[in-house]
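Duplicate of earlier report; Transcription elongation GreA/GreB family factor input re-posted below.
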Amino acid sequence: MSVAFRRENDDEHLEPKFELPIPPGPNLVTAAGRALIEERIAALEAQLAAADDTAAVPIKRDLRYWKTRRATAIETAPPTDDTAGFGSVVTIRLAGKQRRIAIVGDDEADPAADRIAFSAPLARAIIGAEAGETLPFNGREDAIEVLAID
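Output:
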């Protein structure tokens, strides 16, 4: 039998495990975002202490990601004027539905809970707006109505 058709084990043909991608741009975080990073690091360090060598590999990869995010975190406060910005909670009307959206960092984002990353298209459309403004979005000139900014 030719060497080309021999395989020692199935692990040889698995896809390699790459590092977790770091989102481009600055790593802006809210105070809650910084706490989230610390919680993730603590949880991963506890998992790593209890893991065997094989299970430790993905935990170490995740830990490198979160330690990098901690080292590059720039804690940013919401704007002090009456405009929407990073850290703001904005009440909008979009497609006839009222939504209360928090503009947060990439790692804090949870679109299902209306916590969107500052780099998301919807957040970019809202940043800099004031209450009462109508904003263009997704090809419509009056798609977003800003109702309130907290």
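Residues 31-50 form the longest helix (20 residues).

Merging into the original ticket.
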